[in-house]
Write a structure and sequence with these properties.
- The protein is of the alpha+beta class.
- The protein has a single domain, classed as Aminopeptidase, CATH 3.40.630.
- Helices cover 30% and strands 21% of the residues.
- Strand 4, helix 3 and strand 5 form a beta-alpha-beta unit.
- The longest helix is centred in the middle third of the chain and has 15 residues.
- It is globular and about 40 Å long.
- The protein starts with a strand and ends in a 22-residue tail after the last helix.
- The structure holds coenzyme A (COA).
- Coenzyme A binds next to strand 4, helix 3 and helix 4.
Length: 143
Amino acid sequence: MNIREMTIDDYDDIIAMFRETPGITFREADSRDATRRYLERNPGLSFVTTVNEHVVGCVMCGHDGRRGYLQHLVVKPEHRRHGIGKALVRACINSLKQIGIYKTHIFVFKSNSPADAFWANNGWMLRDEINMYSYNTSSNENA
Ligand SMILES: CC(C)(COP(=O)(O)OP(=O)(O)OC[C@H]1O[C@@H](n2cnc3c(N)ncnc32)[C@H](O)[C@@H]1OP(=O)(O)O)[C@@H](O)C(=O)NCCC(=O)NCCS
């Protein structure tokens, strides 16, 4: 297992993984241009895992100067339960720590119970006291 920083050249591989993963939704915000902008805005924070140079896992991570945010943590089904997810998250948390960001959030669909087990078993605190509100200025509901 090898973990390295994600680049825009990984885009096709990671989108293929997202599309075949229940619980991960592909939106306009996941376009190639938007992903390039995200990676440029958040250098050194998103990672992929490769086996024999093939991408088998990824995580995207950014921050707003105050808090870290994780998204799109995905490991290919045949490579799950080998510590890849945990290692990817650790890479993000360590990189955030190096730039002075100590607290990180992730939004998870309530219907995604396997993901819940992952976060709960890895020390993440469920925030059931918070409601999330979103506002969309686009006419595209899938923005
Ligand atoms: C969630 C996901 C990324 C976990 O990746 P992974 O590489 O299998 O996770 P790890 O092997 O690092 O698991 C670490 C620990 O998390 C827990 N865990 C992971 N998957 C679990 C599951 N399906 N059920 C219960 N516990 C789980 C276990 O405690 C595990 O340790 P163990 O294997 O020693 O028991 C992977 O299942 C996945 O890609 N799911 C689909 C996409 C998704 O839902 N992503 C998260 C959305 S935010």
